[in-house]
Design brief:
It comes from Mesorhizobium abyssinicae. The protein is α/β, with parallel strands linked by helices. It has ten helices and 17 strands. The radius of gyration is 22 Å and the shape is globular.
Length: about 375
């Protein structure tokens, strides 16, 4: 598992200076450096892109201090040594705090828009906070122009991203202008889109690579509302999906499978077929054991092997109805073989790992593996395919 946040070992920067988003540059052959945002990533080499900032690692600290004594210098611990050309970090001078915002070689990059949310989902991996974090949206707007036009995928998440209001549309417009070929996927609970005008404005952004993933956890409104801990959420979510599809938006339905939802999977597939057959994608997600999940393990955790029949039936129902369906965050050895073709490698690379049993598995390269947090609870049926 890669560490995406930590603290600089040292920094020759005024503590009163502003937080800065820094794009790492290793070669002088690219475009002229952005004086406000480009930093030379020094690894002991001889080239110098003449950036205002210099970032290095502990093993090169002495040489960097000698060569760049007149420039602001940030020295990072070795656990950040995976950073490379084109990556973007945030540096907060007064705390010497470092956060990796974008990795050019990552299989998926997500931007956190806000930690505020109008749900308190039992299994939320990013527990909401009632804080003023408007600066997060402004930072994303600053960072998007720094990303390569070839970025293969970008995710927008929260909290609930739509709660930032006007800044939500600014982010999407900025992504459209600077990354016109990059698929942008938004994770939202969909409730804000119950307002038709909001849905229309979203679609008016005019980005054909834009899609939105919205969770529905049960065909029973009471079960869904219990899982998200918000009464009336089911009705508003369905209205939001209807409004989005009415204006031509691309919508994915996400279903996290756990003890509260597995028994209703077949009914939910039937509900989707009868009422939401026009959605673009349905994904059944494995549980990530982090955030609120840890506090609610007794309500949520069950061995995925024990719901394999319910999951198989739900997936096959949608596939037979010619609805695009996938299974995320599950190991192939826990799935019925008939739905292996729908399983995707979906876990972000920085928190993806494999068990010891996987070393000799002939299907490892096709299997999604585990979340790094899965060590807290793991199926007793993990076994290598031979």
């Amino acid at each position: 598992m890669l560490r995406l946040s930590g603290f600089a070992s040292s920094a020759t920067i005024e503590e009163s200076g502003p937080r800065s988003a820094l794009r790492l540059v290793t070669s002088p052959t690219g475009p002229a450096p952005n004086l406000d945002h480009d930093a030379y990533l020094f690894r002991g080499d001889t080239c110098d892109p003449d950036c205002r900032w210099v970032v290095t690692f502990e093993e090169h600290q002495a040489e960097a201090e000698r060569r760049f004594s007149s420039r602001p210098l940030i020295v990072l611990p070795d656990y950040f040594s995976y950073l490379s050309e084109g990556d973007v970090i945030r540096f907060v001078p007064d705390r010497k705090a470092v956060r990796v915002l974008f990795r050019k070689e990552a299989n998926a990059n997500y931007f956190l828009v806000t930690e505020r949310c109008n749900h308190l989902c039992l299994m939320c991996s990013q527990p909401p906070k009632d804080v003023d974090d408007h600066w997060l949206a402004r930072e994303i707007i600053d960072v998007l122009p720094l990303l390569p036009a070839t970025t293969p995928f970008l995710g927008i998440t929260g909290g609930e991203p739509t709660l930032v209001g006007e800044a939500f549309f600014e982010i999407l417009s900025c992504a459209r202008d600077h990354l016109p070929s990059t698929p942008i996927h938004i994770l939202s609970n969909g409730r804000t889109f119950k307002d038709k005008a909001f849905a229309q404005r979203y679609q008016a952004i005019g980005n054909r690579r834009l899609s939105i993933g919205i969770p529905i956890y049960s065909a029973d409104p009471e079960v869904h509302d219990y899982v998200v801990q918000s009464k009336g959420a089911f009705d508003e979510t369905i209205r939001g999906i209807m409004n989005l599809k009415a204006v031509g938006a691309e919508v994915e339905i996400r279903v996290v499978v756990h003890k509260q939802t597995y028994e209703g999977l077949a009914d939910l597939s039937d509900f989707i077929f009868r009422n939401l057959t026009f959605v673009d994608h349905v994904t059944f997600m494995g549980l990530e054991i982090t955030g609120f999940t840890r506090a609610n393990m007794d309500k949520l955790w069950m061995d995925p092997y024990d719901y394999r029949n319910e999951l198989r039936a739900a997936v096959q129902y949608l596939a037979a109805a010619r609805i695009n369906v996938s299974v995320y965050n599950h190991q192939l050895c826990l799935l019925d073989g008939s739905i292996h073709q729908y399983a995707k490698r979906s876990i972000s690379d920085w928190k993806n790992e494999y068990a010891d049993e996987c070393a000799s598995c002939s299907l490892r390269d096709r299997c999604g593996g585990f979340f790094s947090s899965s060590s807290l609870a793991r199926s007793s049926h993990i076994a290598a395919f031979q």
